[in-house]
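Human: Can I borrow your eye for a moment on a structure tokenisation matter? Separate attempts, laid side by side, tell us more than any discussion would. Could you pick a protein and write out its sequence and tokenised fold? No explanation is needed for now; the record alone will do.

Assistant:
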Amino acid sequence: MRIGLLTEGGYPYATGEARLWCDRLVRGLGQHEFRLYALSRDREQERAGWVDLPSQVTQVRTAPLWTAEVDGAWYGRRARRRFAEHYGDLAAGLCTGPAGAAGPGAPSPEEADRFRSALYGLAELAREEGGMVAALRSEEAVRALERVCRAPGAPRAAREARVTDLLEVGAHLEQALRPLSLDWCEAGELGSVDLCHAAAGGLAALPGLLARHFHGVPLVVTEYGVPLRAHYLGSAEAPPAVRALLAAFHGRLAAEVYRSAGMLTPGNAHVRRWQERCGADRAKVRTVYPGMSAARFAEAGEHAGAGGRAAGARSGPGTLVWVGRIEPSKDLVTLLHAFAAVRLRAPGTRLRIAGSAPDPEGAAYLLHCEELAGRLFPGDGTVEFVDMSGPEAPLLAEVYARAEVVVLSSVVEGFPVSVVEAMFSGRATVSTDVGAVVEVVGGTGLVVPPRDPQALADACAALLNDPERRERLGEAARARAMELFTVEQNVAAFHRIYLEVAGRCPARRIAEADAAEPRPFAVPAELRVAGADSVEVTR
């Protein structure tokens, strides 16, 4: 099969989300041909370059979301009228219904139809005129937003929008709708693939929506996080009008993505619930857990299972280990206060915080945590901060191997990667009840409420003082991780999904018979086998 893989801010770039699982997926499905269509988020991401691509990737096309040159598509009078009509309908759809007034939720059928008609009307206009960047930046676009915000029945937040608010919303919509101006959905591009696979919802899926609209290409959408929820959290400090209008736009877009996809593959039940709340049909939702490499944790896991906990580095006092990206949502402050209570019940216990702080906010938070640790545990070296970003950083498997208990203290979490790594390593875990933690851990670890240092301390002390229970949970955790969370499980699941979705769709037209009518699926889905020796790269 020919797969159009759609990404935003990730694969094939060396930095960003979802790059690891995308790379493992592509390498694991060598029998298919992949064409990558990637939206980059900033200049630094582009400068960092790409990961090495396997031979089954035969084409890469990229476009920046962070900048766009005026495309020279200056509309005539008729095109301007069409733009004003469609953009006005799209803007009007942001001022009605539950998503416009009260946050997430599926829009009514009438509101969804209006948004859908406006979105695809804009896409068709951009396709005919060669782009839409100039139109989206025009005064007409701002006036259309102002008209709907001042119209009778508009939500109070929209009615109170200032000119600066309208300009901010217009700039965001221009950025979000940039994929409409790309030529990715022409017949020789996404129009010629057998299936589009969006590695995230939201903007990453927008080219897939257009390929489905113009060419009938089926769409699979994978979400391991919730882009809509991330937008709500990220816009919390925005003015009320901006927050309401952009929440409505992203809610409408999510609903259209979920409606149009042939299959939705959330990474956990937490994501699935968000999708269903936004209108996703349960019949086409299939949970696929992220695939992670278990090999590098095999030695620690096997030693744990063989009763090796009493040997080597763990022959002395117990060690709690925390691993992850250092930022406020990880709530290391609660962890440090909990550890002070742990020391009273399990004297001699040490805490290792292994992570990195790649941005200024994280660096400031790390400094705050180091100062707090110095005040709570002055001069005794009880708490050790390990920088995992430098050349001197230990191997991740070694960090887990030195743990008696692995702890996660987050207040916000999607799929808890560090918990799964600890499970592969055969370690007992104590985690806060956020995101997909309960679903991942099952009955193989202890789960406590977030922001509760006493509950966190009680659970950690209970495991530190009970070696038999700790070992029993660690062995069960490794068995669960090997059954559910390996790369092999993930790749096999997507292989089946590709065949199922393609098998339900009409056969794609081929170049030699372009005039023929679509036929029921009658050609083996794996007829086309990747065999190109080079990668075509365009922007």
